[in-house]
Amino acid sequence: MQRRYSILAGTVWTLSMALLPVCDAASPISIEQGRQLFQKSWSPGNPAISSDGLGPLFNGQSCVACHNQGGVGGGGEAEFNAHTIGIEELSIVGGPVDDDVVKRMVSTFHPGFVLGDGTVINTLAMSHHGGSSAFSQGRADFLKQLPAEFSSHGGPVSASETRFATATPVLFHKEVGNYQMSLRARLYQRNTTALYGAGLINQVPESAIRLAAKKQEGHPEISGRPATLRSGKIGRFGWRANVASLVEFTDQACANEVGLETKRKPQPADPMMPGYRNSGIDISDEQIEAMRDFMAALPAPTRAIPSESKKRIEAERGEQLFASVGCAVCHLPSIGPANQIYSDLLLHDMGYELIDLNHAEPYIVRTTPQSRISLSSNERVTGTQMVGGYYGPASQISVDDVFSTSKTGDFSRSNRIRIGRPLKRGFNFVAPNVPEARMQLVDLDSKDTLTSNTFKQEAYDSNRGRVDNATVTREQLIRETLYVRVHFEPTNFNQEWRTPPLWGVRDSAPYMHDGRAETLLESISMHGGESAGTRDRFLQLSLSDRHAIIAFLNTLVAPPNAPQMAM
Question: 556-557 and 302-303: which strand pairing?
């Protein structure tokens, strides 16, 4: 597949929000403050700044509660997996269906699928802890329908239970008046990633990521692509690579995982309490920057070369076999300053078995700057909307086919795709596998100019009556709107995942994006899509050769100097 990568190289988009600064050299004081904040166990209520503190919805009371394998900042077991519910398909019959009917019916499954502005989406983040009693009961009722055992931390107790939970669809039927709705939903999960070496990943230049994709253009099996974001940047962080920088990753994780509202990211809302508002922010920019500095200072994973000659030779042979069967095409040993990372930081189609409806960002191949002049302050440029999500964008469930504008600076509304098939006496929705829209219009900025024209008139008829010897001043607002046309290339965005860095892999089980693989052998066997050929070549090796590759992977360990929790 031939793809284009140079178009975004010179593109600069202006965000309508101020992002936190990037600091190359952090002070020891800031790093230590960040370590304390990373390990801090937050509690509800923050009287010092008049905000609600922890929650009301959260996955953990601290960052280290989930990031702890091998030390502070490591990965997490399956029991800490984050959860979302995704609606795969639904049908509504019984009468004419409009968006109000869709909203009313979907709310009977869970009101969290309806956003504050009335938009209905097909994914819902299901936080493990907190919330109203009604929200907690809904969470418990949903999990009871799955044949899996869950821990007190919220996630499945093991990789095998993860597989049971994900493989089992949840069927729901509801009648309201003359209308009947049937839907099929599924639990999707995300495993906690290790943060060791995050500072080096943050420094990988976009040119290196584009070059890695360019080198794969002629490959017969592999066709990775950059995670193109509508901010004009390329993503590096997260399983979908949908976050560009470490400071943005920190900002979003504070809000979504711990429920700490920031200046840019609202905390998750309890849909059972629509009137609730946090009275302030829960964590300051200075604190977010300090946490970023701590994560950037975490040591990179290393190699543990066996001292015994026989084992060392086996691991060295395994590294050669790792490259010869094709693993190193995606798991590049180095990219930019990240040496021995074993990742290209690109998105790859991993096959239908690894689907997740919190999809990857659509692949942007061309942007065209535009502007328009309007004489109405409320006139808008219209285009495709998508609803953004922390774990990846969702698809909108809508009968209406009228589109309205999205703004790049609004993380909560920037990724909306409307998908719907109106029927004469009903409505069907099936979650899309590729972007249905091929183009989106994104507002960047606007400039208003107020013009006035004053003239005199002996007699003037106004809406209040006749005016003699009148001086009339007419004002008109002229708005210039700057926007870009964003063109997408269709990809299977539900099954595209960032190549996970393999450094430290020995100490970061379970594996795959949702922790469904208990061992490295299981993980390799679960590769599909673009990587199916590489998987098959590995499985066709002799037992001795397969053991050698696993021996090589087991030399990739967590950093021995990672900070540890105080006893």
Answer: antiparallel
Per-residue model confidence as pLDDT tens digits over 476-530: 888 888 888 889 999 999 999 999 999 999 999 999 999 999 999 999 999 999 9
- What span, in angstroms and rounded, lies between the C-alpha atoms of 498 and 345? 6
| Contact between 223 and 1 (Cβ < 8 Å) | yes
Q: Which residues contact 310 (CB under 8 A, 6 or more apart)?
A: none
What does the pLDDT read at residue 420? 53
- C-alpha 202/C-alpha 234 separation (Å) is 11
* Whole-number Å distance between alpha carbons of 230 and 415: 9
- In b/e form, how buried is each residue of 412-449, taking b as 16+ CB within 10 angstroms? ebbbbbbbbeeeeebbebbbbbebebeebbbbbbbeee
**Token pair in block for residue 367:** 């942007």
Q: Give the model's pLDDT for residue 567.
A: 59
Residues of the chain scoring pLDDT < 50: 1-22, 377-386, 401-418, 422
State how far the Cα of 235 lies from the Cα of 229, in Å rounded to an integer.
Answer: 7
- For the stretch 42-48, contacts whose Cβ atoms lie closer than 8 Å and that sit 24 or more positions apart, written own/partner, are 42/258, 42/260, 42/282, 46/280, 46/282
> What's the pLDDT at 263?
94
| Element of type H or E holding 361 | none
CB atoms within 10 A of CB 323: 13
Query: Rounded to an integer, what distance in angstroms lies between the CA atom of residue 18 and that of residue 11?
Result: 18
Which residue matches tokens 């970023």?
292
Return all residues near 308 (Cβ < 8 A) that are at least 6 apart: none
Say which residues have a Cβ less than 8 Å from residue 158's Cβ, sequence separation at least 6: 78, 149, 510, 518
463 residue type, one letter = N
Residue whose token pair is 């590489």: 534
* Closest to 115 measured CA to CA, from 429, 390, 413: 413
Q: What is the CA radius of gyration of the chain?
A: 26
Q: State the burial class of residue 365 (Cβ atoms within 10 Å of its Cβ: 0-12, 13-18, 19+).
A: middle
Quote the tokens at residue 43. 């509690």
Cis peptide before 510 (omega within 30 of 0): yes
In the three-class reduction of DSSP (H, G, I as helix; E, B as strand; rest coil), residue 163 is classed as helix
SS3 176: strand
Q: What is the DSSP letter of 114?
A: B
pLDDT of residue 387: 54
The values of phi and psi at residue 31, to 5°, are -65, -45
> What is the SS3 assignment for 394?
strand
The tally of CA atoms less than 13 A away on the side-chain side of residue 349 is 17
Entry pTM: 0.86
**Separation of alpha carbons 43 and 54, rounded Å:** 5
Q: How many of the other CB atoms lie within 10 Å of CB of 464?
A: 6
Instruction: Report d(CA 387, CA 306) in Å as an integer.
Output: 49
